[in-house]
Amino acid sequence: MPSHLGAEALSASGRSSEKLSLPTLQSKMKSDPDGYESELILLYSQFKSSLELFQQQAALNFTSISGIGSDPSVAKDLGDRALILAHVTPFYPNHLADFPKQLAGLLSSASRSLPSGLRCHVAQSLILLSNRQMIDIEETLALFMDLQTLGDKPLRKLAFSHVIHSIKRMNQKHKNDAKNRKLQNIVFAMLQQDDEAKAKRALTTLCELHRRKLWFDDRTANAIATACFHSSPRIMIAALSFLLDYEKIEDDDDSDASSGEDDPNPQAPHVVINKQAIYNAHHKGTVSSKKKKQAKLQRAMRSMKRQQRLSSENVSSNNYSPLNHLKDAQGFVEKLFSRLQTCNERFEVRMMMLKVIARTVGLHRLILLNFYHFIEKYIQPHQRDVTSLLAAAVQACHDMVPPDAVEPLFRKIVNQFVHDRSRPEAIAVGLNVIREICLRMPLLMTEDLLQDLALYKKSHEKAVSIAARSLITLFREVCPALLIKKDRGRPTDPKARPKAYGEVNVSSNVPGVELLQEDDNNDEDISDAERSSSNDSDDDHDNEVDVASDDEENQLYGDITGSEDDELEDDEVAQNEDGNNIIDSDDSDVSDNDDDDDDGKEEEEAEEMEAADEDVNEATNCSSKTKDVDARDSETGGRESKAKKRKLSDFDGQLLAADSSLRALKRLAGVTMGQTSPDSTDGILSNEDFQRIKELKAKKDANDALVKHGLRKGIPSSDQLSTKRVDPAKLEVHVKKKMSKEERLALVRAGREDRGKYQARTSVKQKKTGGLSNRQKERKKNLPMAAKKAKVARSQLEKKKKQQRAGKQFRGRKAWK
């Protein structure tokens, strides 16, 4: 029952003697603060007297089972008056200025000795005052952190949620860095204490604030990382599990503390936005209904955009880890590795420490040479959690580590997992691990070893063959020279090779200018191909024009020589045979020259300079020979058609030789122009060049993004590999695991679902109720017509014989039949 104010107190204040409950008085004081000021003074004095009485009882050390104080009514009255005063404090700031400090002092001095109910009431009153800005969180943070260490589970949950919500409310509009630093100093100091309970609650609070991205800075991440070196094993395990990005610290108490009431990503109702809804919102209904529909659509759009933004943030933060913000990553790794070498914890804890070290080494690309030798002694196929151990070894490999330090570990993986007597599961896991290590450090692979491992592509086990083929595919991109010819396929870059240890590409020009040069080279290749096709068509056209003009010249030349032949008619027969022999020999020479020209066209581009010189020399020789042929033909005459045809063939050979010489000169000019770089002129890039560089860089980034997400084949960069986590399950992909007895039985039962219960054949026969007789079965048979007729005839014959045996008299046929 709620407590009531006494009649004497109300009569002294001038009120009527009616009894008022505390909730009723609270509502009236809120509605009329000035009218109920005397009641406030009376309540405050009663609270002080109850507090003094309770403190006197505590001083006299009256103990009971539930706590201090033999009279529970004193604790109840104190708690009720503390709650009502906390509710009306904003309406009486002058009268109750010292009230929050009194509550905080009571909790800080006697929190462990107070009864559980009174402690919760006082804590609720203090939280109410803090929510109404009557007391600062900076003054009560240490108190609420201490309250979480008590054995009272509801109070611990209440204090934890109040701390989280207060800091969230403080940073809701903007980040208050100065105040956050003060609060962080309080929690950090509590985390460094030797008291396990206080350090654990501080670590839980820091992890929750970091998970909610309220304290998402370097200081919080480093404070959580330093908790790995706490003297308490439980604190160390909790910090390691958080750094390994476990969703929550595996503790029963902490699972109750994280309530789902303050979920930052509530599931909004699904709203369908289609064309019909948009049309109705703008064209159907009255003005007010249109406004309501439009407002509903806008809310739905905002919620959808918010969900998309949150989902994109979650995708982008998948590879995030507090280890990214370590100030001294090398010192952290060395200190944790030294503790790993000397600790005597159970195997799971040591595996967690080893995973954190490996992830930090890979993330920051650190050098910890003793770590690989430490892992080497655990590399055995029968080792417990060997896939997690191998994933940690892969994570710790990067291009900054000397290959000599990792080579013993690499060799042991090959020798222990990949051999003929090993199980197929172990071979598949070993090949996958070798592929992942060579992806980060390709210098570890040798030619003989790669060719031996490539032979496993012919294995009958699917997991082994897939792993071997993936290794071959990797080295087709990284270094095809290590593979045999039939395994190389068609690589994108046949001369590709991995960088030597310590090799760095130093940019000596404008960043991105190499993209511009590659694009220009591609454009030149395309333009050369087009130019060659256009040149071929132009040359064909020129050949037609030249042949036509040469025909006219031949006709004129033939007329002139014809007049001379009339004068020299006497010597025609004697010189005709000699002229024919000369023309035949010249024709053979011209045809040889034509063959040489055709061979010069098919030469390689690498010998273009020499081919051009040879073609020019041949062209001059051919021109001189054709001049001799023309002179001899002018002497012989050329009345006959055979001589004219041979003369035309001579001119065709001359044209082809000249054409080949022109093409050779054009090729020579193209080679000399191609050897000059685009920057050899002035080395100055225009605004258009910078714009092209920007566009080409955007295309390259898009291609890299597709490669990163697996939408396009390619090798990720070292930075992408360092941020990417190695999943142990991917190392044993396509490997069929051995099923347990329960799984096998479940599989057998699943195959028997459609089958009835087993019964013996004799019991099935005995339970048969009946069937069809032979006569009924015969009726169902479809007999041929002949069989039916024979059966009918047989039955009639039997009927006649039966009648004869009966002794009936035959009376003959009737007349009308």
Automatic annotation (TrEMBL):
Any matching Pfam family: SDA1_C
Question: What is the organism field in this record?
Answer: Lithocarpus litseifolius
Polar residues biased stretches: 309-319
State the GO CC annotations: nucleolus
Which SUPFAM superfamilies would you find in this protein's record? ARM repeat (SSF48371)
Enumerate composition-biased segments (Acidic residues).
516-527, 536-554, 562-575, 584-617
- The name of this protein is Protein SDA1
| Biological function | Required for 60S pre-ribosomal subunits export to the cytoplasm.
Instruction: Cite the entry's keywords alphabetically.
Output: Nucleus, Protein transport, Ribosome biogenesis, Transport
- Where the record annotates domain SDA1 N-terminal, the positions are 85-459
Question: Biased composition, Basic and acidic residues: where in the chain?
Answer: 487-496, 625-641, 748-757
For this chain, the family text in UniProt reads: Belongs to the SDA1 family.
- Keyword Plastid attached: no
Does the keyword field hold Protein transport?
Answer: yes
Q: Where in the cell is it found?
A: Nucleus, Nucleolus
